[in-house]
Every structure is written in structure tokens, then in C-alpha cells.
Amino acid sequence: MAFEKVTVPGNFLPNSGTFAGLDALQAVRRAIPADARVGWWTAPDGWKLRRFDWLAASPRGRLLFQTGRGDIFEKYLETLAYFHAGGWSVTAFDWRGQGGSGRLSADPHVGHASDYGVFDSDLAAFWADWIADGDLPSVVLGHSMGGMMVMRALANRAIRPDAAILVAPMIGLKAPLGAAFSGTVARWMAKHGDPARAAWRNNERPGSAASRQTLLTHDVDRYADEGWWQRQHPELVLGPPSWAWLAQGFAGAAALAVDPRIESVDTPVLMLVAEADKLVDPPAALRLAARLPDAQVVRFGPESAHEILREADPVRNRALSAINAFLAACVPSQ
């Protein structure tokens, strides 16, 4: 898998998260940085996960960025560049079953997982290998499904970062007929039909009149980055989730809602919540945040869709400013 590489322009402004000019923006969003590395990490069971590493020259710490369902790390190159410019060595990997990390179903366009436990195991094992590389402060950021998996790992004590950031975390799924009923339907379909079959045909949720773009971000240019990468590398394309993936998502959310270990998580957590999110359940995330001993919450209104860090500049810059302040308090620069 070949990728174009680019040198990050010198007019990157780490305090604002912006660049001088759209051309410079796209140069970062649509090319792998020249000094970054795309490679592989092999899980204990032999499965290869595609990873991205971008070391800082004199790092203040390391940041592991975990994306959402169906995502690829290329979608977040602009944000990874922001953290890198702020002195962080950044790493990401594609979840098993998506992006460049293979597929768990015969149909390469269905996002399948029969058990989220495989994601738990991959994150725990990757984290153990990753922190063994040095003794720098470590931070984890999880978006959407990545946020759920980070939360599960914190509750399990499978990872022990110095700080955790959850962005539009999938603590609950938005379900028009209610999570309990929708979860029951998903479990029945997974048990009595083909568990790896797509739960719906297209878009990010069934029966939505909204375009996929408006479900994810108001920023048309940033939204277009994903399609650009998929045209260059069609093997990265993934469509709807399977019935089993959906059933596991509802079950995982229900388990977190009653998990007594949440109250004893001692990692400082920053949670960014888009209250108008139409994909995940913001009230569920807020309820969980209220149970965490050390949590800060930043809320966004109708100005933000699901992908807060790929939103229009006013939203994205506010989110990055909140993250900066949180990290300055939790992991001060040396």
C-alpha cells in the first residue's frame, strides 16, 4: 500500500489549529507526513493491524488516537498534525475489521464483529507494547466507537494513561425506537439470520433523511477528505455495520450504564459531547461522565455534528482549545 508523503507546512498554527490557505490544509489532510511511518502491528493471535506513527523531535509525551467505526486514520491527519506540532508523538491504528486491518466478514464492505472482546484485546495488547517503548507521559484519545473501547479499557484497567479524551463517545447508540427495543431486534437478527449481514444498506444509520455528510460534519471540505482517500485506496472503503456488530454495540452500552467500575476510574477524562449528534446518544455519555471521579465535559450545540474534530473551524478550534487546556493541566510540559 503506497502513500504520498508531504512535509507539514511551516505556517501551521498550533494554537489555533488552522493553516494559512486551503492548499496547505489539503497538503496535510491528503498526504502522509514525510517523517511519519505507516506500518503494521501484529496482535498476539497473529492478526496484522495497520498503524501510523509520527514521532516528535523533542516530545512532551505520546498520544494514541483511536478512531470510530468504519474510520481510517487518514481522516484525522489534520488533527494528528495539530498534536504533533504541539510536541506530541502520535500513533494510531485501524481497528481490526476495518481500514487497512483486514475484514472480519466475507463481504469487505460490511463492518462486522461478532464480539467486541476482540477490540478490547487488541487495544490492551497494543497499549502494552506501545508504552514499553519509553517512559514518556501517555495520553489516549478515542472518537465514537474508539471512545467506547477506551472507556471499557479504563474500566478494565487494561490501559493506564495519564489522561484520556473521549470525543463524541459511543456510550450509547441513537435508536429511534429506543435502545432496549433496537438492541433486542439486533440480537434476534444476529442469532436467527446471518450475523455478518449488513444491518442496513447505506448511510450511517437506517431510515435517515439527512445526508451522510450532515450526520458527520458541517464542513464540506473536511468531509471530502474521506472520499479522496477512498478513491486513492478503494480497499479502505467500509459500509454499514453487521447485525452482530450492532447487537454488540447496544450490549456494550448497556453494560457500561451499570458497570460499577466506572466510579473508580482514576484517570482524568475530558469528554467532548455534541448534543445534536444523530449517531450516538449524548445523554448516555453525559450520564456516564457524571459517574467518573475526575471528568470534565465540553458540550456543543447544533453547530456540531458527530465528528467534532472534523467540524467547521469554530467548533474544531473550540474543541482543540479545550483539549489543550486539559492536557496542560494533566500532562504539563517539562
Strand content: 15-25%
User: What number is the mean pLDDT?
Assistant: 92
- Helical fraction: 25-40%
The sequence of SSEs as H and E is EHEEEEHEHEHEHHHHEHEH
The CATH topology corresponds to Rossmann fold
**So, CATH architecture?**
3-Layer(aba) Sandwich
Largest sheet: 8 strands, mixed
N- to C-terminal separation?
38 Å
- Spatial shape: globular
Description:
It contains 10 helices and 10 strands. It is of the alpha/beta class. It has a single domain (35-330), classed as Alpha/Beta hydrolase fold, catalytic domain (Rossmann fold, 3-Layer(aba) Sandwich). An 8-stranded mixed β-sheet has the order 3-4-6-5-7-8-9-10, sandwiched between helices. Helix 3 crosses helix 4 and helix 5 (179-192) crosses helix 8. The longest helix has 18 residues, at 313-330. Mean pLDDT is 92; it is low at 6-20.
Name the descriptors:
334 residues; alpha/beta; Rossmann fold; eight-stranded mixed sheet; 10 helices; 10 strands
Give the SSE map.
Blueprint: E1 5-6, H1 22-29, E2 32-33, E3 37-42, E4 48-54, E5 61-66, H2 77-85, E6 88-93, H3 117-131, E7 138-143, H4 145-156, E8 163-167, H5 179-192, H6 212-216, H7 220-232, H8 243-258, E9 269-274, H9 282-291, E10 295-300, H10 313-330
Parallel strand pairs: 1-2, 5-6, 5-7, 7-8, 8-9, 9-10
Antiparallel strand pairs: 3-4, 4-6
Helix pairs in contact: 3-4, 5-8
